[in-house]
Specification:
Blueprint lengths: L8 E8 L3 H11 L6 E5 L5 H5 L2 H18 L12 H11 L6 H9 L2 E5 L1 E4 L4 E6 L2 E13 L3 E3 L15 H5 L7 E5 L3 H12 L3 E5 L11 H14 L2 E3 L4 E5 L16 E5 L2 E5 L1 E4 L3 E3 L38 E3 L10 H19 L12 H8 L2 E4 L4 E6 L2 H6 L4 E7 L4 H6 L6 E7 L4 E9 L6 H9 L4 H4 L12 H8 L2
Parallel strand pairs: 1-2, 1-6, 2-3, 6-16, 8-9, 8-14, 9-10
Antiparallel strand pairs: 4-5, 5-6, 7-15, 11-12, 12-13, 17-18, 18-21, 19-20, 20-21
Length: about 500
């Protein structure tokens, strides 16, 4: 099957949105059966992560990371700068030149159809697809899954929208490196963007309304990143207000291309002149124009800025019959690709089980989304240094009423880290539920700490007792020895 075959009619499962969560939901819903599924996609199969977020951003960040590591080791000859053309070419290879034909081929190989166009609900188990002035009607025998993701939010700053700023899509797909860039926002996207822009030669000013970077992490994480940014020449301004933006010759120029001449930002009363403005102030769900009213859902039924509320099986609350599901960013549970894919797997497996009349009270359905999305969400911020965290911070655990005990340790004192690069600087912290004797949170900060995270995630999800973790012997000399040092510090 492919996008060129049957485009109207009935399928067992209709998925609106062909990003990684939607792909997973479709695959799991029909795997090993004669059930059918179709992905409805208005842009590219593979979604935001494949073309405008995870993959291009990490492709841009990795060369800078390798260069920094090489500079920290004696006897390794390195140049002073990155080869910008080569870095951008490698990025283009990872996003296949924004061509999704390989993703469509994957869908065909998995037995999943693809229909191009903007999908919206048109009643129970019915989806209309708008494309090129025409409309097709698709019917779902078992389920419809909404996996429409989210869009970059633009704050209500006078003149900002007219200045045609870059969003995350533009900055990950940049074709020319601006000389001077202002990045508005001190979260994950803002901090990661600052790293690769600086590595590619831009002068970067990071404008943060709060008092620190990465405010959802442990305080020492943002502090560590801020210190390193100062060494890299990235200017960080905290506690500021962007009052207005003026760009007299702004105009559209396509994703990743300059949108006009210099822009002047008034920042807490003082002018800042830059060649490009990057907005990284959060995201909003793509839940408008979905036809929700045709299934009895109004604005008052949604959460916050428009998130779809779901139960533990990802069925949309307020819609009877357990046929409508929502996954990924549009649910607001955890705006991360890996968590959206997890939700897609759960939703797809639930749809398959219900189609076969199987019970949902055991096996992979035990605990499910509420547990993993609520208290065991892993995330890596690929800044310099990396920030890897899972579960609750100390402040979050205390606010939830947990009797907390915490332990921290210098990662640079671990043999594996010191071998990784000279002058290694990093820190690790565990948040422990004292009465239960299990982890509820972990944070690692330092170069290449991302690979430490999954062990912490397993410990939290599995509620592994600290006494058992003591017998998980880390290989020497690796950074994993940090686990031994943290556990020793508890005694």
């Amino acid at each position: 099957m492919s996008e060129s075959v049957q485009q109207t009619g009935s399928w067992d499962v209709v998925v609106i949105g062909a990003g990684p969560p939607g792909e997973n939901a479709a695959q799991y819903a029909i795997a090993g059966s004669d059930r059918t599924a179709v992905l409805v996609e208005a842009e590219r199969v593979g979604g935001e992560c494949s073309f405008w977020a995870c993959m291009p951003s990490k492709a841009l960040l990795r060369p800078a990371e390798v260069l920094a590591a090489a500079r920290a080791l004696p006897g390794v000859p390195v140049g002073e700068y990155l080869d910008v053309e080569a870095v951008l070419a490698r990025r283009d290879a990872f996003v296949h030149g924004l061509d999704d034909s390989s993703q469509v081929s994957w869908a065909a190989g998995a037995g999943i159809d693809v229909v191009r166009g903007r999908g919206q609900l048109a009643g129970e188990r019915t989806v209309q697809v708008w494309a090129g002035g025409s409309v097709r009607t698709l019917h779902a025998r078992h389920a419809v899954v909404i996996a429409t993701g989210s869009t970059a939010a633009l704050p209500a700053i006078p003149g900002l929208r007219a200045a045609m700023p870059w969003t995350s899509r533009d900055v990950t797909n940049l074709h020319e490196v601006p000389d001077r860039v202002a990045v508005i926002g001190g979260g994950v996207v803002g901090c990661e963007s600052a790293v690769w822009l600086r590595a590619l030669g831009a002068q970067v000013t990071l404008l943060v309304s709060g008092d620190r970077l990465l405010p959802r992490t442990e305080p020492f994480a943002g502090e560590s990143v801020a210190r390193r940014f100062a060494e890299l020449g990235i200017e960080v301004r905290t506690g500021i207000t962007v009052e207005r933006v003026h760009r007299p010759d702004a105009g559209p120029a396509g994703v990743g291309h300059p949108h006009g001449g210099p822009a002047t930002l008034v920042v807490s009363g003082a002018p800042l002149v830059v060649d490009e403005v990057v907005v990284a102030t959060g995201r909003v769900p793509n839940s408008t124009d979905l036809g929700l009213e045709t299934v009895g859902l109004g604005r008052a039924d949604l959460d916050g800025p428009g998130y779809l509320p779901t139960d533990r099986h990802l069925a949309v609350r307020g819609v009877p019959g357990e046929w409508l599901y929502a996954i990924g960013d549009v649910t607001g549970r955890a705006l991360l690709t890996h968590q959206g894919k997890y939700q897609g797997r759960i939703a797809g497996a639930v749809i398959a089980a219900r189609a076969q009349g199987l019970p949902l009270d055991g096996g992979r359905f035990r605990d499910q989304v509420d547990g993993a999305d609520g208290a065991a969400v892993p995330q890596v911020t690929f800044t310099d240094p990396q920030v890897a965290s899972v579960g609750r911070t100390e402040a979050e655990a205390r606010a939830a009423g947990v009797d907390v005990r915490c332990v921290e340790y210098d990662l640079g004192a671990v043999a594996g880290a010191s071998l990784l690069r000279d002058g290694y600087t990093g820190r690790a912290k565990l948040v422990i539920d004292r009465p239960a004797g299990v982890l509820v949170g972990a944070t690692f900060v330092g170069p290449e700490v991302a690979e430490l995270l999954h062990s912490a995630t397993i410990a939290i999800v599995g509620k592994v007792p600290l006494d058992s973790l003591w017998h998980a012997v880390p290989a020497y000399p690796t950074m994993s020895e940090i686990w031994l040092r943290l556990l020793e510090s508890l005694n």
